[in-house]
Amino acid sequence: MSEQEAKARVKINKLLEEAGWRFFDDENGKATIKLESSIKMEDSGDDFEHSERGYIDFLLVDENQNPVIVLEAKKEKLNPLVGKEQARNYALSQKVKYVILSNGIIHYLWNIETPISEKG
Q1: Residue 23 burial by Cβ neighbours in a 10 Å radius (0-12, 13-18, 19+)
Q2: What pLDDT, in 10s, does the model give residues 55-105?
Q3: What is the CA radius of gyration of the chain?
């Protein structure tokens, strides 16, 4: 991970915690954020980037640990929309329809069942 993407992730981490998501189990319950979850790309039916495995930046789960949202992080200087197809594949592999695309500054919440334009 580049230093620029790491800076974006620090911002994203803080925003997730402020919104009530948890990185660790605590008195409020189990962790609801899984980092760098590894998946088999063939699970999504697509050979994305010629790789057999992919890594979801953030997988947000409910209290029963069921996947709810895939969050794809990009470095601050990139428009987060550049990660939409990658995130779509990850969401399909987890059988979720919601994706957050973020560079730490700009954030898109996307239902993958609806089109998303390059302008947001």
Answers
A1: middle
A2: 899 999 999 999 999 999 999 999 999 999 999 999 999 999 999 999 999
A3: 14
**Runs of H (alpha helix) within 1-119:** 3-18, 84-94
How distant is the alpha carbon of residue 93 from its chain centre? 12
Tokens standing for residue 62: 């409910």
Pairing of strands 98-102, 107-111: antiparallel
Q: Strands, E, within 47-118: which ranges?
A: 53-61, 67-73, 98-102, 107-111
Asked if residue 119 is part of any domain, the answer here is no
Structural domain of 26:
3-111
